[in-house]
Design a protein that fits this description.
alpha+beta, five-stranded mixed beta sheet, 13 helices
Length: 418
């Protein structure tokens, strides 16, 4: 029988893991890569659908089509019930998520000999903050999509717990660990008692001392940085001729939000923006906005913001050059700009770390190690925030895009043993 797999269906990236007698491993999904962007591209040229790196490439060579990213973010929201238009038809978001999971299942089958039918799916502590009904709906929606993709036996594990299982493989004595999983869409935290002996136990519920999370991640940092440093050049807060009125801000919020960009390409929105242009006191800015929308360059623009954010993890200043077809201009962004843009989110992350320690009944001093996973943990300000919450703990960087899938594979092997 094909082994059960663990799937980390992430907001920004996704991975698949399996576990056999030799231990857990990540499967190559595309071109040998074990992590792929959670992205789809619907081609208008040949009506094909591509995924992951291929989707990204076809979009960036400007092939006509519809590009979708961060589709996990719609789970549990009203947006899940809406449809999105490609050239020939409208798709429900449940269909789109199922298509991406089917892609992961099919490509995994190339390594395993057959597509797996049993899976443990990772899930954040909360798909939706402070709304248990919406959170439960999100899990049901993801399970339905997994069934539509061909999985028969489906279980869920919290992503920070999965990351803890990965971390535990390398400990040599019992300790209390804080697992910080800050990915593209959520920040999840667990406090777990780990040890070589406990790693062999089948039931670990007693070792999970507390877990929680908040719907903040790398895509939120992209949006916040874009709103602070890029959207003003396209007309954010730009005044209209009628006294006291500014250009509607929702255009810019959607343009800075990965999963909402496509809705701005609707002809009704373009007509609205053209009307705003006629009323604008700074028409050159609204003209830039209109060119972004007419030429469908929203994802390209936000990808530039994301690239600047990533660069600022290792340098103090980055430059975002706008596409010459939009405007002959560039925007300098400093690490201080990034830190200021995400400051409120970092406060919320710190508050959730404090919460999980209270849930565990522990003081910060009781935590001896922090295991970091998720791409956003590479940001210096994120690491500084975590370190300040547990100052005596050592910080250990795991596989940013593979730790959760590895832990899910370990969990799948235990759940579906035999």
């Amino acid at each position: 029988m094909t082994p059960a797999c663990g799937i980390d269906f992430g907001t920004s990236n996704s991975s698949v893991g399996v576990c056999d007698a030799n231990g857990p491993s990540l499967l190559p999904i595309q071109r040998g890569a074990t992590s792929v962007p959670t992205a789809l591209f619907f081609s208008f040229d040949d009506n094909s659908t591509t995924f992951g790196h291929e989707a990204l490439e076809r979009y960036f060579v400007r092939e006509p089509g519809r590009y979708l990213r961060a589709i996990k973010s719609v789970l549990g929201t009203k947006l899940f019930e809406e449809t999105t238009q490609t050239r020939l038809r409208r798709y429900k978001f449940g269909e789109i998520i199922a298509a991406f999971l089917r892609f992961l299942r099919t490509t995994s089958g190339q390594s395993l000999g057959a597509p797996p039918t049993r899976v443990v799916l990772g899930r954040p502590a909360f798909f939706v903050d402070d709304d248990p009904a919406a959170d439960a709906a999100a899990e049901r929606q993801l399970e339905a999509a997994a069934r539509a993709a061909g999985f028969k036996e489906i279980a869920f594990q919290f992503e920070p717990i999965a990351a803890a299982l990965d971390y535990e493989q390398n400990v040599n004595a019992e300790e209390i660990a804080l697992v910080a999983d800050i990915g593209g869409g959520t920040s999840d935290f667990s406090v777990v008692r780990v040890s070589p002996e406990r790693a062999r136990a089948s039931d670990r519920r007693g070792d999970i001392l507390g877990f929680t999370g908040v719907h903040i991640g790398g895509t939120d940092f992209d949006r916040q940085l874009g709103m602070a440093r890029v959207m003003p050049a396209l007309g954010l807060r730009s005044p209209l001729r009628r006294e006291g009125l500014d250009t509607p801000s929702w255009y810019f919020f959607d343009l800075a939000t990965w999963h909402r960009i496509g809705f701005l390409y609707d002809q009704k929105v373009l007509t609205e923006v053209r009307a705003v242009l006629r009323e604008a006191q700074e028409p050159e800015k609204i003209e830039r906005l209109l060119r972004v929308l007419e030429q469908r360059k929203g994802h390209e623009l936000l990808a530039g913001v994301e690239a600047a954010k990533i660069e600022l993890s290792s340098i103090d200043r980055a430059t975002l050059n706008l596409d010459p077809d939009i405007a002959d201009m560039s925007v300098d962004i400093t690490r201080a700009d990034l830190d200021a843009a995400v400051a409120d989110s970092l406060k919320r992350i710190r508050a959730r770390i404090d919460d999980v320690l209270r849930l565990a009944g522990l003081t910060p001093e009781a935590v001896s190690a922090v295991f970091l996973t998720g791409g956003a943990t590479r940001m210096p300000s994120v690491r500084k925030t975590i370190a300040a919450a547990v100052p005596a703990a050592r910080l250990i960087a795991g596989d940013a895009f593979g730790s959760v899938a590895t832990g899910l594979a370990l969990d799948a092997a235990r759940r579906f043993a035999g």
